[in-house]
Specification:
Length: 174
């Protein structure tokens, strides 16, 4: 478990390691995937919101419209892209890399942006309006989890303090 001064955020699996960000502490942690032992700490200059891995680089969000690309060994920034649709898309949160694209939930909204990581263009939106009854709930209990099962080609979503994980099937809009 994390020390109390840290608020854990994005996690990505890189080979036999798990990489974790912290929200405002500018410190990340690397753990052994099998025993969860702490292997390394690293620093980064922004907040840590979301993290995913494309097989070559870590991709990180910090709540702005930027995606940052990090070397998975040194954790140094090796690039970045501004995410946009008709304008900047801010509050990028949880990330998942799926078949060449980055899926990012937008904090406090019931939608996920599908992003081309080469140029930052949003290529599609996933509307999850009504997936979870948010009436009379803590306003912080927002959509905040995306996971992809590549073997079964299944997409899962959940949120902070949600009692369920939802498997969703994407259907192209008419």
């Amino acid at each position: 478990s994390l020390q109390p001064q840290y608020f854990g955020e994005g996690i990505a699996v890189v080979g036999d390691k798990i990489v974790q960000l912290t929200w405002q502490s500018h410190v990340g942690f690397v753990y052994d995937k099998t025993g969860f032992g702490l292997l390394q700490e690293f620093e980064y200059p922004t907040q840590g919101w979301g993290l995913t891995y494309d097989g070559k680089r870590l991709i990180m969000s910090d709540g702005t419209s930027n995606l940052y690309f990090l070397d998975p060994v040194t954790f140094q920034r090796v690039g970045q892209v501004a995410v946009h649709d008709t304008g900047p898309v801010t509050e990028l949160n949880e990330l998942e890399y799926i078949n060449g694209t980055v899926y990012a939930n937008i904090w406090r909204e019931e939608k996920i942006a599908v992003i081309n990581p080469q140029n930052g263009q949003v290529t599609a939106w996933i509307d999850l309006t009504g997936i979870q009854d948010l009436k009379n709930q803590d306003p912080n209990n927002v959509l905040n989890g995306i996971a992809y099962d590549a073997i079964g080609d299944r997409l899962f979503v959940t949120g902070k303090m949600w009692p369920r994980i939802f498997e969703i099937k994407l259907i192209p809009s008419a």
